[in-house]
Structures are given as C-alpha cells and as structure tokens.
Amino acid sequence: WGADGHRTVGCFLTPKTLSFVQTSLGTAFNRSLGTAATWADDVKNQAAFTWSKNLHFVDAEDSPTTNSCSVHELRDCGNGVCVLAAIANYTTRLVTPSLGTEQVSEALRFLDHFIGDLSQPLHVEAIEAGGNGITVTCQGRSTNLHAIWDTNMLDVHLNTSFGGSIATYTNNLVARIKADNFSVPVSNWLSCTSTTEPFTVVDPNPNGKRDDDFGADIRRDIRGLLGLGHGLDKRAITPLACPLVWARESNLFDCATVFPVRTGDLCTGTYLANAIPVIDIQIARSGLRLATWLNELLDP
Ligand code: DCM
Ligand code: DCM
Ligand code: DCM
Ligand code: ZN
Ligand code: ZN
Fold first, then answer.
1. Per-residue pLDDT tens for 64-91?
2. Rounded Cα–Cα distance for residues 292 and 294 (Å)
3. Which residues have their alpha-adjacent CB atom under 5 A from ion ligand 4?
4. Model pTM?
5. Is 208's C-beta closer than 6 angstroms to any atom of ligand 3?
6. DSSP 3-state assignment of 3?
7. pLDDT tens, 112-161?
8. Is 43's C-beta closer than 6 angstroms to any atom of ligand 2?
9. How remote is the CA of residue 113 from the centroid of ligand 4, in Å?
C-alpha cells in the first residue's frame, strides 16, 4: 500500500530534498516517490533481486491471537535480514555518494518502499507468514488476510469514499495531516525521527522484557550480527531506534484490529469499518515520516 501513501510525500519535502529526489529517481520513475514506491515489489521476484525478498517485513514472533503483541530487534531481526535492518542499510547508502548515482537511487527506491511496508501491521507479524496463510473472504471471494490488508480493503475504501481515485484519497490525507485531523496528533507521529540514533540493547518493550533477554549468543555483538544477508553480509548494519518504534506501533494494530473477530466477509461491515482508520493513519503516517526522514538526510 506504500505507493498510494507515498503520493502524499511530495507535499512535505523541502525544495532541496524534492530537487534531489526528482533528479535521483529521474524520468524512469516519473521523478516521483509515488511512482517509485512500487519498484521494490516489482523487482523482488526477478533473479537479480531475490535477495531482497525477505527485506519487506519483520517476522515478529509474538502472539496476536492471544492479544500479546511485541517486536524485538534481536529476537525478530537477529540475522539482520528484515525491514528494520534494510531501512538502516538504505538510510546509510542514500547519503554515501561514493556508491554512485544508480546505487543511491536504488537506496532511495528501497527506503521509499520499506517505510511504507513497515506501516502495514501484517508486515510486522510472523504468524502464517504475516497472514498469507490465513484464508479469508473479501467481497465474496476467497483470499488471504495479508492480501486484504495490502490491497483489497484499501481498494474498497477508495471506491466507496473517493470515487476510486488514489489522487483524491491522497489529497484528502494531506488535508487531514495539515488540519491535524487524526485520532493521534500529527506531532506525536514525529516524536522519533532521528536517522542516526542507534537501537540500543537495553530497550524496554511493552511486555517489560528487555531486548537483551533473548539469548547470550545474540547478545555478544549486535553490530557484527546485524549485517544484511547475501552479498551484503560483509557490511555491518547498525540498527536504528526509530524504525523499531514505528514497527511496534504497527504491530500493536495486529492485536487491536487485525486479529480479533475475523468472521464472515471482512471487506464489509464491522471488520472493514474498524480497519479503515488504521489504514488511513498508517498510510498518512508513513508518508509524513518518509518525507521527514528524507529531509533530515538530504537537507539537514
Ligand atoms: N500533491 C498535492 N498537493 C501538494 C503536493 C503534492 O496534491 N501540496 C499531489 C501531487 C501528486 C502527489 O501529491 O499527485 C505527489 O506528488 P509527487 O508525484 O511529486 O510525489
Ligand atoms: N510477507 C510478509 N511476511 C512474511 C512473508 C511475506 O509480510 N513472512 C509479505 C510480502 C508480500 C506478501 O506478504 O507483501 C506476499 O509475499 P510473497 O510475495 O513472498 O508471497
Ligand atoms: N547492496 C545493498 N546493500 C549493501 C551492499 C550491497 O543493497 N549494504 C546491493 C547493491 C547491489 C548488490 O547488493 O545491488 C551487490 O552489491 P556489491 O557488489 O556492492 O556487494
Ligand atoms: Zn513490499
Ligand atoms: Zn504485503
């Protein structure tokens, strides 16, 4: 769902950031973060990019069906192959010009996409591969829980309230951001935006455990352990504090909204009605956070 949200981003970039972004993406991506946001999904099944497939999510090993939600950097991304480590990796690569313009542009496309993915609650959940294995009904058709959160409920929402127009929807989200018209004040969305603050091991989580409670083996050397997979593994990635904060926020919706009471057709009635405010705030929030992240990196 990132592509839709990231049409809102252009409005919040500073002139300097916007100029960098437009040049870096180039005409191949319409000089637009909205257009470029789908690239990472387009390439992940191509042989040259299969290594990136598991960077789109973090398999949080919690238990949303018993109302226990949590994300732990070390438990859930201990091997460094997850969306949290990917955001850290591409944040660094975006501001490393020595990599060359193509790699910097690729880093921007990945960040554009992964900050959107992180806002989808089922991209921060391990159960049944983020709900891909849970069969549900949507508008009379059999599909899976992950797919309706990625696509189908948003499509129904667009058709029902915005004439099927993504532009109308994103303009509405931008207006609501500017009017501070969401259940959580917009200023709170930006309480954690540092692009450099590292994740620290002594990291209290909602269950009162610490992230360093997950085994001596993974306690030894976080920096060394959290290198990305495949050909990237020689480079240590320092995981960042703020993407973990955003991940926990997403993941809490698994307990509050995604997993409870899943009966009947989920793309209508109460389930959809409960999902819509989550979809709206998560898409709006990820767009504004991406813009803020890019401004901090490219126009500090
Ligand atoms: N947009 C808007 N109002 C703004 C800024 C942008 O309606 N103040 C729209 C124009 C594009 C989309 O948001 O449809 C994002 O633009 P871009 O393609 O530059 O990402
Ligand atoms: N996905 C996820 N968590 C997993 C596996 C997959 O969030 N453990 C996401 C990635 C895609 C979607 O589910 O958005 C479909 O995955 P795939 O294309 O790998 O079937
Ligand atoms: N790559 C990446 N992140 C890194 C290192 C590399 O995404 N930290 C990507 C860039 C190339 C591929 O992996 O697409 C191989 O890069 P290299 O030959 O520099 O290892
Ligand atoms: Zn994705
Ligand atoms: Zn998905």
1. 999 999 998 888 987 788 999 999 999 9
2. 6
3. 41, 56, 117
4. 0.88
5. no
6. helix
7. 999 999 999 999 999 999 999 999 999 999 999 999 999 999 999 999 99
8. no
9. 6
